[in-house]
Amino acid sequence: MRRLLILSLQIGGVVYLLLCFYVFYIQKQLLYHPTKALRTEQLLTAQKHEEREFLDSKGEFAGWMLGPEQAAKTVVIFHGNTGLAVNRHYLSDPFLSNPLTQNWKVLLFEYPGFGYREGEPDEKSIVEKALLTIDSISGPIILVGESLGSGVAAHIAAQRATRIDGILLIVPFNNMAETAQFHYPYLPISLILTEHYRSDELLQHYKGKIGVMIAEKDQVIPPRLAQKLFDSIENPKKEWIIPGVGHDGIPHQAQTLWWREAIQFLALSS
Questions:
Q1: CA-CA-CA-CA torsion for 4, 6, 8, 11, nearest 10 degrees?
Q2: 159: phi > 0 → left, psi -120 to 50 → alpha, else beta; which?
Q3: Residues linked to residue 145 through DSSP beta bridges, in sequence order
Q4: What region does 205 belong to: left with phi over 0, alpha with psi -120 to 50, or beta?
Q5: Residue 213: count of CB within 10 angstroms of its CB
Q6: β-bridge mates for residue 146, sequence order
């Protein structure tokens, strides 16, 4: 009986280690869900929403620009871990339709490996391309990060702090380790994780205004982690908790109260 128990424990240990190695190997596939689309298809969508292609200083496609060419500020939006930037007009519309910000322009940044953009998505490549894009834009910048994009925005805020006039984080997380641990509580996440997105640490390097929007019933990013991020911020800050909605249920109509308050908060950030 004792020998059988030892054998069972050994087999269980081997299976557990194999599971850890498997998750380590596929973690980027679990985190990033790039949607592919031909350029011609995206151009048709872009035309409907008056979006135009934006090329960075290296001549690489970086996303979709909306609004006037000559603008007081530029809003750069980093979307979640799936879908396409060209379809994120629900994040740009509140800015372009608000009297406080209608003279701003908006860039819907696209991740490497998404749409028709070349490359593979990972933290290093996304941040590198995002920094190149920021450096290709003149004038003050507002950052908006949605879900995964909140981690990208935190990187940019830390490394280009003097360029950023304000930040809005929508359904954010405090860091990827705690978020992943929520989904895989039985795994040693801190030992196998390669994508860290330590927003709580990165934002300590930024001193401007930060707005945080939390979905009360979020099952993807636990509200307690978004709240933990907000509580760690010592900057001027403002929080919106949307009752009764999950991760993908946020109301994005331009006249929604939280959006109007968020834009007012950002417009007065400088």
A1: -130
A2: alpha
A3: 78, 169
A4: alpha
A5: 22
A6: 170
Q: Given this model, what pLDDT does residue 136 score?
A: 96
Q: Are 243 and 216 in contact (CB under 8 A)?
A: yes
Output the CA torsion sign for 67, 131, 198, 36. positive
**34 token code pair:** 């790039």
Going through 147-209 in order, the beta strands assigned E by DSSP cover 164-170
pTM, entire model: 0.94
Strand order in the sheet with 74-78: 52-55, 61-66, 105-109, 74-78, 141-146, 164-170, 210-215, 237-242
Task: Count other C-beta atoms under 10 Å from residue 48's C-beta.
Answer: 9
Q: Is 25 helix (H, G, I), strand (E, B) or coil?
A: helix
- Taking residue 18's Cβ as centre, other Cβ atoms within 10 Å add up to 10
Under DSSP, the state recorded for 32 is -
* pLDDT tens-digit readout, 149-205: 999 999 999 999 999 999 999 999 999 999 999 999 999 998 999 999 999 999 999
Cα dihedral angle (166, 74, 179, 29), rounded to 10 degrees? -170
Cβ atoms of 73 and 165 within 8 Å: the answer is yes
Q: Provide the CB-side half-sphere exposure for 219 (13 A, CA).
A: 5
Q: What is the mean pLDDT of the chain?
A: 92
The predicted-structure confidence for 34-79, as pLDDT tens digits, reads as follows 999 999 999 999 999 999 999 999 999 999 999 998 898 999 999 9
Helix (H) or strand (E) holding 262: helix 257-267
Chain segment 244-265, per-residue pLDDT in tens: 999 988 888 888 999 999 999 9
Q: Is the pLDDT of residue 7 over 60?
A: no
Three-state DSSP at 263 gives helix
Instruction: Read off the tokens for 182.
Output: 């929520």
